Q: What sequence folds into this?
């Protein structure tokens, strides 16, 4: 399976935790890991990442994106330039590749996802989940803000199965740049807004409680599902647990519902992988 990430080098250790959780819960699968980076990124952290992936028996491909890419797009400390790279990944990935799964590195994998990875795109560009599907006010606000009135949902871009063959035909940088230039003041969640505005009608929806569980909404999920989606249900059924928002579980001050679970995976990655000797290479 092909996995895609887009990071700055100070997120390498978070990526390692995510990769470790994936390997733990998909032990029989082989993974090719593609990481998009700004072409200025070159640190000891990346060297550590190469060693880490070797120990997990994952094949790592580092892809450096030209530094002038998205140079004029809105960005901040929370939203660096690398967040946009998923929108144009098809231009930098092997041409023969027909699908890849993009993942944010602030998530954990709790269960196998082979069936999800092999989903039928049904002529859509992407498969993703919405965190606002049951919140009609939020959906209406986003339609007005982005001007995509015919789109039913606002999709989260943190888990994005990509139909590369079709994306290469229908998604181009000129359209993306033009939309950003024309709407920069309206972009609250920059890359995600662009994705929804331009391609929201070409995204197949999947259940967020399974494939992109927003950890902030534990109580809301339980209420909407009649109390069935308790902690036991989540660990047995949810595939991707996503720590959305500003508070992140690797911070000592974080005290969210799933903080202990994340910190446990983080510790296991350090104990069981980082502590191993580096692989012997010819």
A:
């Amino acid at each position: 399976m092909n996995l895609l990430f887009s990071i700055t080098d100070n997120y390498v250790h978070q990526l390692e935790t995510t990769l470790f959780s994936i390997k733990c819960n998909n032990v029989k699968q082989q993974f090719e890991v593609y990481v998009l980076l700004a072409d200025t990124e070159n640190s000891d952290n990346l060297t550590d990442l190469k060693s880490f992936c070797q120990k997990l028996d994952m094949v790592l491909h580092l892809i450096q994106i030209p530094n002038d890419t998205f140079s004029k797009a809105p960005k901040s400390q929370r939203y660096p330039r690398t967040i946009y790279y998923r929108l144009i990944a098809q231009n930098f990935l092997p041409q023969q590749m027909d699908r890849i799964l993009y993942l944010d590195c602030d998530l954990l994998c709790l269960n196998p996802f082979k069936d999800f990875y092999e989903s039928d795109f049904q002529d859509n560009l992407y498969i993703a989940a919405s965190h606002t599907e049951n919140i009609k006010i939020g959906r209406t606000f986003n339609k007005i803000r982005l001007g995509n009135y015919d789109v039913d949902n606002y999709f989260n871009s943190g888990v994005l199965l990509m139909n590369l063959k079709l994306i290469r035909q229908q998604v181009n940088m000129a359209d993306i740049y033009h939309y950003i230039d024309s709407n920069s003041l309206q972009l609250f969640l920059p890359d995600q807004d662009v994705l929804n505005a331009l391609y929201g009608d070409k995204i197949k929806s999947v259940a967020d409680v399974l494939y992109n569980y927003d950890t902030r909404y534990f109580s809301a999920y339980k209420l909407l599902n009649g109390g069935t989606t308790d902690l036991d249900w989540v660990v047995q059924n949810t595939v991707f647990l996503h720590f959305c928002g500003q508070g992140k579980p690797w911070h000592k001050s974080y005290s969210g519902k799933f903080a202990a679970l994340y910190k446990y995976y983080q510790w296991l990655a350090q104990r069981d992988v980082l502590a191993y000797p580096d692989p012997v290479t010819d």
User: Anything to note?
Assistant: Residues 78 and 228 are 34 Å apart (CA to CA). The chain has one domain: 2-274.
